[in-house]
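Let's practice the habit of predicting before peeking. Look at the sequence and jot down your guess about where helices and strands might fall. Then scroll down.
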Amino acid sequence: MKIRAAVLREIGQPLVIEELELDAPGPGEVLVRIAAAGLCHSDLSVINGDRPRPVPMALGHEAAGVVAGLGAGVDDLALGDHVVMVFMPSCGHCLPCAEGRPALCEPGAAANGQGTLLAGGRRLHCDSGEVNHHLGCSAFADHAVVSRRSLVKIDKDLPLAEAALFGCAVLTGVGAAVNTARVQAGQRVAVVGLGGVGLSALLGALAAGAAQVVAVDLSAEKCRLALELGASAAVDGGDPAAVDEVRRLTGGGADVVLEMSGSARALENALKMTRRGGVTVTAGLPPPSAVLPVNIVSLVAEERTIKGSYIGTCVPVRDIPRYIALYRAGRLPVNRLMSGTLNLEDINLGFERLAAGKVVRQIVEF
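Done guessing? Here is the structure:
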């Protein structure tokens, strides 16, 4: 079938809206009619070259839609079901999957790096040849074929524009607080970087019972939003005294610091904001060349913990329904993260706004 998709033809250049040929779903695959897709910094990092991926590539990885076709062997979904896409497919058989850590699925990571679906093939074509898939989703399109293992079924009464947020921003941010950091009731938490993932992490820490959450960002507008969402205080991340201010506000350093900005400097500061014996978690993705200077004596003598978090250390089929339930209960108001909607034709303008730090989450609606 013919579809319209946003394609990255050349690193550093705007996306091109073009017509592609989409194959029918193969065994274990599903055709999804995309209803809504979020613009995320991970997409922007592919466009600007910070996260190198093979091109041409149809971008988009945070989305929700409706099942429109089923490949052979898919018997647990039906036409018309509503689904959220997950940007790391899990095979269910490799060692990380067997250990209950699908975010680290080895075949899934290999497929994502190569621009294929989990089974190893590509279902997108144009006159000049095959087009790569972005993280198994390629959701900036009116339709997509994905692995069944890239989908989580959801109830139909949740608006799909809101549901899309749960596939990346909420899954990654809330999961980093709840699963990776294991924020406990009464703890003091700081969140560095207040994009969609960072604000989701803030909401996750509050839902987990944190007594204090200090928000840190360069944007005064995002700091104001964090305060509206329940942050105890907000600190200008560009202030040379930001680290000292966070340490003062938290009585010597936060128990947990969640770094979500994708900046090596921000992670270095996050470590300094963490108290002795505390936990520093990062879910940001800086360029592959970025390194972190660590004082090893401090790491040992102060029993510090530095943890990476990918997809919020989540089990998506377990966690997405849980987070949706918390949203419905009013404990995760993630709809407040939506900065607005746009058409596919305006997607490059949307990424310009995202790069300028003027928005949190924009949603392309189809």
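How did you do? The radius of gyration is 20 Å.
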